[in-house]
């Protein structure tokens, strides 16, 4: 059983019970609009006056959505100074759309037995108006409905994570074939992309819980596991510890007192030290991948590390206004934000998904190289977002699916 969410250009909280699609699907009372967002893949936004006439295939703009049928005003995201700010991860969001669940099983877990099939990933799949289920009348202000595959996929992932609250913070490694099996009944392009990764040596994944902290948790785990397998641990571990120590003055300079961060810092440092010096609280031997997994499954350790990395990211953004200031936008309104407010609300707060700014800031602060494989179902190959802040070091590898990060296990560096 799968679900078929639709996108509704309506305000969050608008009660759509009592309406149905003109294809006869009734909106039950339980299926009310749910706040949701659409992400643009790449390219630049058009000025608002040109948005109605944009083609989804326009190579000049990379615009993926056409709004000429929407009866509601499009959010103000087309200010001239923002034209070039859509990064390759597509972090602009349009919040006038809500996802509505139209059909499915009784529980989220059952609904997610398989991901739904979708067609062309870059266009609205279907337009329809809502009509009153009892009278057949069209509302005075028509609401157009569209199936949009990116949100379809993201909503399924969100429901999946919500339906499995006990999912480990960090799980054991599983073959990438397990991920492929989840998409067997879905869009073929996802299968081709997974096969593309497999054929290039990415044979497994390590899942993280989809709680909004998955980027930070995945990055921290991948960093320490890389040290465990590093043949030059006597050099790489001290260098990593030195880099971490160098972030402390940054934290102090933006107002974080040591009392706030020192326990979180110690949680990360202790694990890294255990790579070359046995920690009796963990084992009588040097840290292994299995022991690292067990430590990251403990909320008091895993979440402490996440908090520390969030504080480091916040400090880097606050101190790097010239680099990041123009990209600090409110994720719901698209309005520019001061670094302090942006960091307090969306970086330091746990459970908030990391955007491209945060990824850049963290990698810069920790001098990391990270490759992020973008699994989007758009093509037969996979685009990698490459973050480079250390010469010649092999990159960590993450797998990004809209709204979630896992660790990608690939060729030995």
From TrEMBL:
Its EC number is 3.4.19.12. The keyword Protease applies. GO terms for biological process: protein K48-linked deubiquitination; proteolysis. InterPro entries: OTU_dom, Papain-like_cys_pep_sf, Peptidase_C65_otubain, Peptidase_C65_otubain_sub1, Peptidase_C65_otubain_sub2. One of its GO terms (molecular function) is cysteine-type deubiquitinase activity. It holds the Pfam family Peptidase_C65. Keywords: Hydrolase, Protease, Thiol protease, Ubl conjugation pathway. It catalyses: Thiol-dependent hydrolysis of ester, thioester, amide, peptide and isopeptide bonds formed by the C-terminal Gly of ubiquitin (a 76-residue protein attached to proteins as an intracellular targeting signal). The keyword DNA-binding does not apply. Residues 203-411 form the OTU domain. PROSITE patterns: OTU (PS50802). It is an enzyme of class 3 (hydrolase). One of its GO terms (cellular component) is nucleus. PANTHER family: UBIQUITIN THIOESTERASE OTUBAIN-LIKE, UBIQUITIN THIOLESTERASE PROTEIN OTUB. This is ubiquitinyl hydrolase 1. The lineage of its organism: Eukaryota, Fungi, Dikarya, Basidiomycota, Agaricomycotina.
